[in-house]
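Input record (one chain):
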Amino acid sequence: MRLRKFRVRAYRCIHDSGEITVGDLAAFVGRNESGKTTILQALTLLNRDELVSELDLCDEMSEELKEEIRLAEGEFELNQHEIGLIKEKFPNLPEIKKIKLIRTNRNPRVQYEFEDIKLSDDSNQGINSWENFSKEILDFLNTIPNHLRIQIDTNFFDGPVPKNQETFDSGMAEFSNQFHVIAIQEPNVIAEWEKIYENPDNQYPNLLSGESEKTALQNFISSDLHPRFVYFSDYKKIYGNINLNEYLREERGERADSIEYIEEFDKAETVRNLFYLAELDMKELDAVKESPSKCIKLLNAASNRLSSKLNPAWKGDPIHVDLRYNPGNIMSVVISDVHRDGTITNTGLLNRRAEGFKWTFSFIVNFAAETQRAELKEAILLLDEPARNLHPTQQMGISDLLRNLAGSNQVLYATHSPFMIFDYTPGNLLVVELDKRKHLSRIFYDYWNADDKTLTPILYGLSRGQVESIVDREIGTNSRPVIIVETMSDAMYLNAFDKFLQDPNISMNPLNVVAAYNKNSVLPLAIFYRNHGYKTFILLDNTEESKQISAQLASNDFSSIQTIIFEKEGKKLESIEDYIVLEDYLYPVNQTYEIKLRQEGFSNLNPQEVSSKEGRGILDKLKKIWQEHRDDDWGEFNNEEITRYICEKIALEETDFLSDKTKDQFRSLYRLIAERIRQYQNVVTKSDINKFQRARA
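The corresponding structure, as predicted from the sequence alone:
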């Protein structure tokens, strides 16, 4: 079950967030005190057992809160398995694909809405529920002789729904034994009871809860399918030496009173997470600590388990964690760097490492332990600043960890860092801003309309180094047209061949080419430039992903003139490399890989060999060849290396391998770009440019 839309009202600084669409891996970006943490914490109100605190209700909305108000509501999309479970239990209902969860300030329970499906509140004896099952038992008892009925204890069926299978089985077994003893002289009565008792429909997994169709469905969702929101905040650091006597006292709750109340995980929680990942049992350690050989064997196994679980999220050289038991009941955490050649260096206590290293180590330990302990699957993880204090390289390590979790969970997190933003799709990137006059938070789904200062991390992520030129409208309105391309290779080719052709009839030198960070950043980057006064054109290849980008550009008021697809002689091309004649392109490929793969048996490729492969373009065909040689350690074909080779040769004026046909085909690309710019300048007016700035205002 995945959250697709949500809305928060009257919660702390948020009057009304409005309806927000959210993706599977979504980042909330905003300045300090903008309300990012509040958004995450408000979503935990949709947890089944969460309690609403009066202190969390918005003070400025006291009048509205006199009535029942929806504090948090979320629209969830069910997967096929969940849809099938509901259909199996409620075959007479239409297929339920979406569910809305609602938490109000008056009702202590989460409420449910089921699209436009109408559910009856009337009692329905046809529902296979605990309530109807209990009624069936009591009705049956009313049919047996009175002298038997008055001896039977029916408290089990008069009580609430059994909490689990074990409670149900024990209660039923006890009642059945009592019934057999009392009715031992009435074999017909016992036979009737056995029919009820052994009926498969009356087994615990098949019983619902609720007398009406609506109540039964709500109770089933609550007990079997209700989504879980798991909130992660701050953790304390792990240090080099752990006093196990102190740790065990903390575990038993024997702690000294503190002058200050701190609302975060304590040291015992952090150490517990470390031992959990290592699968180290304190009782087992206590039993072997007097035997050095057994103790070393136990701790070596625990250390290896701990290292294997931490290294997937650790960037740079791997580390090995060694747990060592010392006199005085002290556990030492010793860290070593493990290099690619197998050498081990920098062995020492964790507390001798830098603060950033200790924080990173502690975060990964705590986060990995909490997620594994909860056996998270189809949960919604809420993380508050998961990359705090981390170097950008380690932030990318945390990003990999989040991506892995997002496979089976939904991950929503707050961040300030451009290195923690890796998906610019609306809904996967949301901006939170604070209205200082009203002290209220606003959430932007169309994040490019937020304040430029709030957007700084996103802008740097979209195109680092271009931020200052983007936000200065005077530069935009007085600049040459901007041509946004999907990859760095496209930008390199455009600039290099413009210089190489030296054709005054078509030259646009210096070209104002901007390379997008990746394909899903093309759309917002184009919008930013357009909104700041630039005449903006977008150059796309003919892939499916680029076709989607083209459709998104059109829906954001870009004209067809501004979107340029690579084409040659009326035929659309898969990449800019398809403007280069095959024989010309294979020359740098063979030159590069003949040296690079000399030990792996690379032999020069010829045009016939490449042409014979299936593929929609030259790059696709070359990648197929490389895939065929993956067992020969060819690795992956890297077209950027070839791009750099060609552009370097153009700069050195060593271009004998480039034919006139390649030059002519690139000339056709420049003519296409120039023609589109002329068409646009003929139809665009100053009012067209200004309307986007007015829309932002």
